[in-house]
Amino acid sequence: MSQRAAKRILWVTLLFTLPVPFFMIEVGWVPPIRLILFALLTTAAAVSEPGFDTGFVAGLFVPQALLYSALCYWLARAAVLRLNRLVPAGFRLFALLAVLAALVAGSLFPIFRTPFSHSAPRANLLGIFD
Predict the structure, then answer these.
(1) Which residue from 12, 24, 32, 94 puts its CA 20 to 30 A from 60's CA?
(2) Contact 18/31 with Cβ under 8 angstroms?
(3) To the nearest whole percent, how much of the chain has pLDDT over 90?
């Protein structure tokens, strides 16, 4: 697998599994993909119904989504570079798969704090978008 492909796969996995703090009305810990979804929804609402409230909410979600997307990309890049230095070429795919499996397995536990969820204040990856 190429370094570019490994970096992109790890980046997308981090976007879906890494709990990051966010601030809106309350503080929560969610994966960046949820912040990206909130940023898209609030930006669409701000464009279709301009006003202070929708602009303010979009103004809170968009920078956080961009920041955490960039942070996940940087982490994926750094991890793949470190992986390429430390792991022999024949075992790099297995090492990457182990990292991906650990991230996905960890996200199946209720590690996310979701203050805007209607079902539970804690959720795992499968329950984050309820």
Answers:
(1) 12
(2) yes
(3) 48
Asked whether the beta carbons of 16 and 77 are under 8 A apart, the reply is: no
- pTM for this model (two decimals): 0.87
Burial class (CB in 10 A: 0-12, 13-18, 19+), 77: middle
Contact 124, 108 (CB under 8 A): yes
- Number of domains present in the structure of the chain: 1
**Domain containing 115: what range?**
3-124
Structure tokens at 45: 């609402």
Q: Is residue 53 part of a domain?
A: yes
